[in-house]
Amino acid sequence: MSLTLAHLSDVHLGPLPPSAAWRNFAPKRIVGSLSWHFKRKQFHDPSIVAKIIADIKASAPDHVALTGDLVNIAALAEFPRAANWLKSFGDPAWISFVPGNHDAYVRMRWERGLVHLAPYMAGEMDIGGTVSSAHIATPFPYVRLRRNVALIGLSSAQPQSLIKAGGKLGLKQLDALAKLLQNLREKGYYRAVMIHHPPLPDLSPPRKALSDAAALRNVLVTEGAELVLHGHNHCGMLTMLESSSGKIPVFGVPSASTNGDGDHEPAAWNHYEISRNSGKWQTNVTIRTWQPKSGGIVTKNHFTLPS
Fold it and tell me: What are the structural domains of the chain?
């Protein structure tokens, strides 16, 4: 029995609500607002996101993984709007979300921000060792089981200083992940890990990196996984990590809203078809990308991962 999974990231829903940075004043929000108005809004296009979503819906995947940065400066008005956008996209049982650094842009209470997206971060297994915080009160990691696939959501979203865009998991989340990966492997599940920041060292510049990427890499090498999905870098990436149970494909995707101007890759999403073949997992990958010239979504690449 196969399962199909769509992966998109870094939607950066625009435009910013009027006077958002001033209504919810914080120095980092001001800087982020200026960055949006003078740079980012030039290449994040809501109409492109709409085409990406329509293309995903047309392919009718069994599940969707959304790896963070749904909002921009974590202004209070952004979260209800993001929740409404998610609701129009699909049911919480169909979409699994993990937060990114822009979703935790500044320190703010859970009930004022990410609580609006909570149904899309709700786990379905009672697991120990989970961690929560003032800004993300729902426990991480979380697990959702879809047929023979286990989706494992991690939160690397931590409020950062004025010039940083990094993230951190922390020891509790790493320990819980290690136990989960072992347990799910023993039960025969295909393990798909979702995180916003690139999960391995040297995949992002220090200012934007996951601070405990080396520790996460060690967990993955020791316990294995069948797939790791991330965003953050706004570009398509595939890194193969050697682990105790074989090679782990680590996929990053471009922002789902970028128009391809300047140094930014055009918006894209990945489609994974996961099946069991002769006792081994098989993953077929299709990369669908927005084509600036035609304004449509086309297949950029299609391949099967080595089993």
Answer: 3-304 (3.60.21.10)
